[in-house]
Amino acid sequence: MDQLLYASEVFINGLMTGVMYSLVALGFVLIYKASGVFNYAQGVMALFAALTLVGIMNGQVPFAHLINAMFGTHLDKFGWTVPAVLAIVLTAGVMVLLAILIEKLVLKHLVGQEPIILFMATIGLAYFLEGLGDVMWGADIKTLDVGLPQGISDTVEQLTDSWFGYGFFIDRLDIWATIIAALLVTALVAFAQYTKQGRAMRAVADDHQAALSVGISLQFIWIMVWSIAGFVALVAGIMWGTKSGVQFSLSLIALKALPVLMLGGFTSIPGAIVGGLIIGVGEKMFEFWIGPMVGGATENWFAYVLALIFLVFRPQGLFGERIIERV
Amino acid sequence: MFYREAGDFKTSYRDDGQTFPIALDRWGYYAIVAVAALVVPFVINDYWASAILLPFLIYAIASIGLNILVGYAGQVSLGTGGFMAVGAYSVYKLMTAFPEISIIAHILLAGGMTALVGMAFGLPSLRIKGFYLAVATLAAQFFLVWLFNKVPWFYNNSASGQINAPERTVLGWAVTGPAATPAAKYLVCLAFVVFAAWIARNLTRGMFGRKWMAIRDMDIAAEIIGVNPLTAKLSAFGVSSFFVGIAGALLFAVYLGAAEVTEAFGINKSFLVLFMVIIGGLGSIFGSFAGAAFLVVLPVFLKNLLVGTFGWPTDLAAHFELMIVGALIIFFLIVEPHGLARLWRLVKEKLRLWPFPH
Amino acid sequence: MLDAAENQTTADGRQIGPVVMDLKNITLRFGGVEAIKNISFDIREGEIRAIIGPNGAGKSSMLNVISGFYVPQEGEVWFKGYRRGPMRPYQVARLGIARTFQNIALFDGMSVLDNIMTGRLNKMKAGFLSQALWWGRAEAEEIANRAQVEKIIDFLEIQNIRKTPVGRLPYGLKKRVELARALAAEPQILLLDEPMAGMNVEEKEDMSRFILDVNDEFGTTTVLIEHDMGVVMDLSDRVVVMDYGRKIGDGTPDEVRNNQEVIDAYLGVAHD
């Protein structure tokens, strides 16, 4: 009985982690669907967004480190702090600017290249952004507090205790993160399905040239999609940054989202959601049951091996369409 | 004018298929090998060996390996770091278990071991393609690193979790351990580089290379004209991992001397070698050397420039390096997807006519 | 009725041999769609066999069945008196069936010479070690096969482009290189999927000449899909006509030309 309750606690925690994975994975799917780019830099974008957010909130001088090194000045902070809401809006603006720059400087010149070349370009982009974030805001670990509730939820603990005689430990931040992520996922799906821009985006995803021929601006769609991805990265960055500080390891959530995509199929929005949940629950359960026997830390690879085994049997992923090969 | 191929006629298919069809290239190559083997060992010092030459040679082997897989066979792998770790831990286990056998044999066996592991992780390539496969190879990266971290047998239960290379000799000269001289280390690495380049060149100019390139360029058509995708892909994974494993073994045993798996063979190693291949030139052995040289020299150069000349703090210089490497990758993919190797060829084509415009 | 084992004389007096490939009751489905419906025909040694029909008739699918790329749900493929079991395409290639593709499928990153050399991969048996060391069998084989390939290069008059990367060639030449690659395999059956699609008159004449020369000189059995009726009627010994996945005609060019159902299909009589 106890074992079962532990397991369900692990299950619920896994589910909530899974929603976060889904959110990051969704950023990938949107970009992939609209521009055929598999954006490895998604995780670094989350890091960059979180760094920028903290930097703006704390009134840091951007590039202070660099300017000091070059001109021997001692710049550090402006001396003001910015309220969280305004800072989030400003950061979103920065992410839009970033999207425009990426379109102008990178994507535009790689139109028609093979997907794998684009993928490698985004690895380069990830390196660049990682360096840029550090040069702009410094590489020290920062705490991020935008006012989200944190700590173990007493309500859940008392409720479950009264039901099962065993209190579940669930972080309030996780609950909020799950709710926000779920809302965002719903909003994105609705956007893609029901708005004019969403339809245009799906048209571009289906066939670039056909979309161009009916008067859809590729440039606009790409900037829009990368901005959305930047926004998703910002939200993910806030959640993970609040939880474990803004530092390099934040960018590794991208690595968690990759197996989600393999499982769900690169082009499927429901796939990203279900895949995220499966991986979130799967890795927590695996670590719970098998982890202690093999020395723990199986979360590092479990998702990948699961996705790998799955793909060998179903190469198109969970919801991907069966590919009929032609010559 | 000075670089010429006119008048260099071939009278047999054998001459036409050789590695350096142009006489000038051939002599240039012999000259470089002669200088590398006969002059450099006498002038090498500790700084040059550890900052530039050893990493260059070792990464050149890894790049040749990865280039066979990515550049020739078109199968993108992000598991290079993990495969290098297999080479390193294999050679460590062999060195400590059979001290009486030559280290050269151990290194080759470590390569063989890595080839087997590489082929096992290459099996999914028969079902999945493109970046599905690229992401799948990350499974190898994370799983292998985890394995070498968690199973004490691999590091002989050492308390620190590190592996340390004991002293081993070749022909009486120490090549591993603290007593090894830069010249001895250098010569061992050089020998393996020449070996790797020679084998890689032979394989890529023959039927194996053609099968790999056929799979890369159009896998369905390749199978229909008679290429068995199983053997073609697995042989590419095997050969590639063999060289990557040798590079890992050399990196640990000869260059680093001691290693901890997450630090020495993390995912950044995978990207580093991939970048070398992209910058150097996909599908070019020369490119593997050029890419390795470029990415080994660049940080040294930047550090000397930014920290040494401008007096910037080291961490800032390191972040700047990330930006530059990232920007260069994008630049090369946009401007010259064939990398430095292609630029070199263009220079040669210009030189052929120089100083006349036509 | 033709006897499968015996030689035949066609209308224009050419000798064609016994049946090498016999396709019996082939049915191929994609999901619910039947691309090929219960088709049977044979291919005789040394003949030029054309498959014609309107777009979407299932001609290319038929070729893909012969070359092993699609496995039909029903029916049997007999090759040289043996029933062919389920095979991967590369195994079919080893039996001696080579082909060209409707949308050129050359290896763009390789030179013309290397592309044609890939056609000979089933003729080269050097082991891994020999190739890695470039010693013994590997080198000897490479040179011997290069000589064979050079003959084909001469035959198709593409000497001047042998070191050019295929990606840089114009369309017509690519088609010719693809034919060279297929010929390099010294095939028992050569499958040509629209070898003249998108060509101008002059290029078509060249290609027709090559196909006839190949057939004359090497006696290669050829199966050909083509839209240009003039070309088909001139080149082929026997013609299969397909429409909506069914076979609606089979015989010499003259017989097919006078077949009412074929005329209807081409003139577009409404199906009821």
Helix/strand layout:
The complex is a heterotrimer of chains A (327), B (358) and C (272).
Chain A: H1 2-35, H2 42-57, H3 64-71, H4 84-105, H5 115-137, H6 154-164, H7 172-194, H8 196-206, H9 208-213, H10 218-244, H11 253-264, H12 269-289, H13 291-294, H14 299-313
Chain B: H1 13-16, H2 23-43, H3 46-72, H4 80-97, H5 103-122, H6 130-150, E1 163-164, E2 169-170, E3 173-174, H7 182-205, H8 207-217, H9 219-224, H10 229-256, E4 258-259, H11 261-264, H12 267-280, H13 285-309, H14 314-335, H15 339-353
Antiparallel strand pairs in B: 1-4, 2-3
Helix pairs in contact in B: 2-7, 3-7, 3-8, 3-10, 3-12, 3-13, 4-5, 4-6, 4-10, 5-10, 7-10, 8-10, 12-13, 13-14, 13-15
Chain C: E1 8-9, E2 15-16, E3 19-30, E4 33-44, E5 48-52, H1 59-66, E6 74-79, E7 82-83, H2 89-95, E8 97-99, H3 112-118, H4 128-133, H5 137-155, H6 171-184, E9 189-193, H7 201-218, E10 221-225, H8 229-235, E11 238-243, E12 246-251, H9 253-257, H10 260-267
Parallel strand pairs in C: 5-10, 5-11, 8-9, 9-10
Antiparallel strand pairs in C: 1-2, 3-4, 3-6, 6-7, 11-12
- List the uncertain runs of chain C: none
CATH class of the largest domain in chain C: Alpha Beta
How many discrete structural domains of chain A?
1
Number of strands of chain C: 12
Strand content range of chain C: 15-25%
Number of strand elements of chain A: 0
Count of discrete alpha- or pi-helical segments spanning 4 or more residues of chain A: 14
Task: Tell me about the largest β-sheet of chain C.
Answer: 6 strands, mixed
Give an overview of the whole structure.
The complex is a heterotrimer of chains A (327), B (358) and C (272). With 327 residues, chain A is mainly α. Chain A has one domain (17-250). Chain A contains 14 helices and no strands. The longest helix of chain A has 34 residues, at 2-35. The radius of gyration of chain A is 21 Å and the shape is globular. With 358 residues, chain B is mostly helical. Helix content of chain B is 73%, strand content 2%. Chain B contains 15 helices and four strands. A two-stranded antiparallel ribbon of chain B has the order 1-4. Chain B has a two-stranded antiparallel sheet with strand order 2-3. In chain B, β2 (169-170) and β3 (173-174) form a beta hairpin. In chain B, α2 (23-43) packs antiparallel against α7 and α5 crosses α10. Chain B is globular, with a radius of gyration of 21 Å. Chain C has 272 residues and is α/β, with parallel strands linked by helices. Chain C has two domains: 1-96 and 187-272, Rossmann fold, CATH 3.40.50.300; 104-180, no CATH class. Chain C has helices spanning 59-66, 89-95, 112-118, 128-133, 137-155, 171-184, 201-218, 229-235, 253-257, 260-267; strands spanning 8-9, 15-16, 19-30, 33-44, 48-52, 74-79, 82-83, 97-99, 189-193, 221-225, 238-243, 246-251. Chain C has a six-stranded mixed sheet, sandwiched between helices. In chain C, a hairpin with a 5-residue loop joins β1 (8-9) and β2 (15-16). In chain C, α3 runs parallel beside α6. Chain C is globular and about 60 Å long. The model of chain C has no long low-confidence stretch (mean pLDDT 87). Chains A and B meet through α3, α5, α11 and α14 of A and α6, α9, α12 and α14 of B.
